[in-house]
Design goal:
heterodimer; A: alpha+beta; Jelly Rolls; 2 helices; about 30% strand; flat; B: about 300 residues; alpha+beta; Umud Fragment, subunit A; 3 domains; 3-stranded mixed sheet; 4 helices; 13 strands; about 30% helix; extended
Chain lengths: ~180, ~300
């Protein structure tokens, strides 16, 4: 275990003083800026960022936060046509949002490694890094922002590489595709 | 005695850090957490005036009737209120909003839009709020923060000065040995210590500004879930390109029927459909197989 006595005195002193100074500075700064002064009267709308998702081409009007995506009804064929699922994103807030897609837990397996996912939307366009492998999908934003109150019909496409060498019949474990909207700069 | 001093020192350091964290939380929301003092009895009997309320930022969509939320007072936009939600609805069907009411109040508060919500109450402690209200004053900060900090810095400066006094001066090869070199003067030591401190403060301030600049409004997360995909049971690779084949055959007899069949071959492993010429009349038909999407066959008549 690292003992304080074994740390170089210079490093310890500078570190301690730095930490104490940072705490004192932070608290002083917080105390100085905590009071609010008002320039009134003003009328400002409070920014609200919220997304909703709907299945198929039905755009949500409520605050639906989840809808089923791909199913095993249409299997993936190596080199064959992409399997698609349609959904609709609605910006239920009052500021434009730049939506980012991510897969929190990427599915394992050879099939997932050979399966490519693309998402295309009417308003937001494609993901800036579209056609990513399912097994290594990194969070990616859409090309365009989704205006406040607007809905956007999207299609997610999954296709299996023609070079897939599996025997067939494999199932890619269930995975989520998450969308989160960020205030546009 | 030595053990007792160590325990006392440890307790002092822990107390100092706790004071700093609490005062910091009390002044500004930190990592989504916020500490607030209750000035009125509007939420009796849930909590009394002078209590400390600890709230944490949550997704607006997760709030429901009965939750106690901390929000910016929509009437003044300067103070905060901590009241119970009695209704959840959406303005124009889009913007989340709440109606709140203090448990001891006879009437509800004005509507609160979702953006004004600062967090949901997760904990409250009686009487501690008054203590923190005092801690928030400059007198409280001076006694609880500045004084211990000054003592720590003085002690560390003293230790650093002792250490520097014992250090051998730095000397280049070929120059007189360290024994002959002049030791660091008091001005140099103070300059070194002051420079180090200034450096730490500048880096800390820059980091603080960066954190502030990166904060943006973020929406809730929506999910396309669950997704399950399956690979087809037979993974025979279909042709990479589609082809169209055209075959022409002449009906020479002019009277009898001529049938044209697409035969199996190395490139055509199966057939469906055919074309024929009836009584010498020209006709055409289509067939397809697994290797060609369409074969157009034309039989020329007389």
């Amino acid at each position: 275990m690292l003992h304080l006595r074994n740390i170089n005195p210079m490093v310890r002193a500078v570190g301690t003083m730095g930490a104490v100074s940072a705490l004192v500075g932070g608290i002083t700064f917080a105390n100085l800026t905590s009071n609010t002064v008002a320039l009134s009267p003003n009328t400002l709308a409070t920014a609200s960022a919220a997304l909703a998702i709907g299945a198929g081409t039905t755009c949500p009007t409520g605050d639906t936060t989840s809808t089923p995506g791909f199913t095993t009804a249409t299997p993936l064929v190596p080199g064959g046509s992409a399997v698609t699922t349609n959904f609709c994103l609605t910006n239920t807030g009052n500021i434009p949002l730049l939506v980012t897609a991510s897969i929190p837990t990427t599915p394992p397996g050879t099939a997932a490694g050979d399966t490519t996912l693309s998402i295309n939307c009417t308003t937001e366009g494609n993901l800036t890094s579209n056609s990513q492998k399912l097994s290594v999908f990194t969070p990616t934003a859409f090309t365009n922002a989704l205006p406040a109150g607007a809905s956007d019909n999207c299609t997610a496409s999954a296709s299996l590489s023609g070079g897939y060498t599996g025997a067939g019949g494999e199932t890619i474990p269930s995975f989520d595709i998450d969308f989160i909207g960020n205030q546009t700069p | 005695m030595r053990v007792f001093r160590r325990i006392l020192f440890g307790a002092g350091v822990a107390g100092f850090i706790l004071c700093c964290a609490t005062v910091l939380l009390f002044n500004r929301p930190t990592l989504g957490w916020q500490a607030l003092s209750v000035p009125t009895g509007s939420m009796r009997p849930t909590f009394t005036p002078g209590s400390l309320v600890l709230s944490h930022r949550v997704a607006i969509s997760s709030l429901k009737v009965g939750d106690i939320i901390t929000y910016t007072n929509p009437l003044t936009m300067r103070s905060t209120l901590t009241h119970r939600i009695i209704k959840v609805y959406k303005i124009d069907g889009k913007i989340p909003a709440f109606i709140t009411k203090g448990d001891a109040n006879p009437s509800p508060d004005p509507p609160v839009v979702g953006g004004l919500v600062q967090g949901q109450m997760v904990w409250h402690v009686p009487y501690v709020g008054n203590l923190l209200m005092w801690a928030k004053t400059w007198t409280g900060i001076a006694i609880l923060i500045y004084l211990p900090a000054l003592l720590v810095i003085i002690e560390e400066t003293r230790r650093l000065a002792d250490y520097l006094r014992q250090m051998k001066p730095y000397s280049l090869r070929g120059t007189p040995s360290s024994k002959g070199a002049a030791p660091l003067g008091m001005r140099s030591r103070l300059a070194l210590a002051g420079g180090s401190l200034a450096g730490v403060l500048i880096v800390g301030a820059a980091g603080f500004d960066t954190v502030q600049a990166l904060s943006t409004i973020t929406s809730n997360t929506v999910s396309l879930a669950p997704n399950t995909l399956a690979v087809a049971a037979s993974t025979t690779t279909p042709p990479s390109t589609t082809t169209t084949t055209t075959t022409t055959q002449t009906n020479t007899s002019c009277t009898s029927d001529t049938h044209v069949n697409v035969n199996d071959s190395s490139s055509q492993s199966g057939t469906t459909g055919n074309a024929f010429s009836q009584n010498g009349n020209a006709t055409s038909g289509n067939v397809s197989n697994t290797n060609t999407t369409q074969t157009t066959i034309t039989v020329t008549g007389c």
